[in-house]
Amino acid sequence: MDRAGAPRYPPPVISSTTPADVAAVADHYDDLDPFYREVWGEHVHHGLWLDGRETPEIAVRRLIARVAERAGIRAGTRVCDVGCGYGATARLLAREIGADVVGVTVSPVQSAVAASAAGPDDRVRIVLGDWLRNDLPAGAFDAAVAIESTEHMEDKAGCFAEIRRVLRREGRLVVCAWLAAERPRPSHARALLEPICREARLPAMGSESDYRELLAGARLTVDSFEDLTTRVARTWTICIRRAARRVLVDPVARRYVLGRRGRNRAFARTLIRIRIAYAVGAMRYGLFAATAR
């Protein structure tokens, strides 16, 4: 049992064949920081294409707008951003909507960048640390968002239990997650999903039903679920193109990716694997909206 009393569950449908603890996740993001900022920009998450004509920057903002709307975020809402990355979403929610946001990341590099970018804005606070061992007070937030961060949690039941603990009763949660198919083909699991978990430092990748069970176990009632796979998949085409351009023009990046010393260089292959996994139905991208009970 954890602090919120939620039961532990068996691992989700796909698990990494190598350890992916908090230190490994932090090292992944710290080591790949220049690469991430070149390929992803300040928002390290998917974009949402609604009419297909959006620029990548507009698509990213549209995903955040969808998250904010589903979470009921407005001026004065106290928000916890679980896995805040470089803090770009936290800053947008604070400066454009007027929310008060606490962002949590395990990456020292991301934390430093996020804190510097937030500057003296007292509506944004960045916390460096392990979400599973956070010191945030119980019931302190009206809403929580986790945009592509729960995949990195070793203990997903504990992750959601902690989210429920820091939310007030009737508080809102929105989770955007990389999801495995419910019953992936063995070949897809072997060639796509398991390598993605290993290379991207994901302890496990759950399915939609896994997440529903985990949320229910943490007393978070799912109000809606959206499969946004076809609306976000273009993200990976763009990332592959940007990464290829970086490797072609930057000898440092080329040596990192093609050499043997880059300890996280295998992630370059994951860009392609994920795009294929979306195309063949091995992976999905889901948005869960839930309420704390």
What does this structure look like?
With 293 residues, the chain is α/β, with parallel strands linked by helices. The chain has helices spanning 22-31, 33-39, 56-71, 88-97, 108-118, 156-166, 186-199, 208-217, 229-232, 234-249, 251-258, 267-280; strands at residues 14-15, 78-82, 100-105, 124-128, 141-147, 167-180, 204-205, 220-227, 283-292. It has a single domain (14-292), classed as Rossmann fold (3-Layer(aba) Sandwich), CATH 3.40.50. The protein contains twelve helices and nine strands. The strands form two sheets. A seven-stranded mixed β-sheet has the order 4-3-2-5-6-9-8, sandwiched between helices. Helix 10 packs across helix 11 (251-258). It is globular and about 50 Å long. The model is unreliable at 4-10 (pLDDT under 50).
Which helices and strands, and how do they pair?
Blueprint: E1 14-15, H1 22-31, H2 33-39, H3 56-71, E2 78-82, H4 88-97, E3 100-105, H5 108-118, E4 124-128, E5 141-147, H6 156-166, E6 167-180, H7 186-199, E7 204-205, H8 208-217, E8 220-227, H9 229-232, H10 234-249, H11 251-258, H12 267-280, E9 283-292
Parallel strand pairs: 2-3, 2-5, 3-4, 5-6
Antiparallel strand pairs: 1-7, 6-9, 8-9
Labels describing this entry:
9 strands, single chain, 293 residues, alpha/beta, 7-stranded mixed β-sheet, Rossmann fold, globular, two-stranded antiparallel ribbon, 45% helix
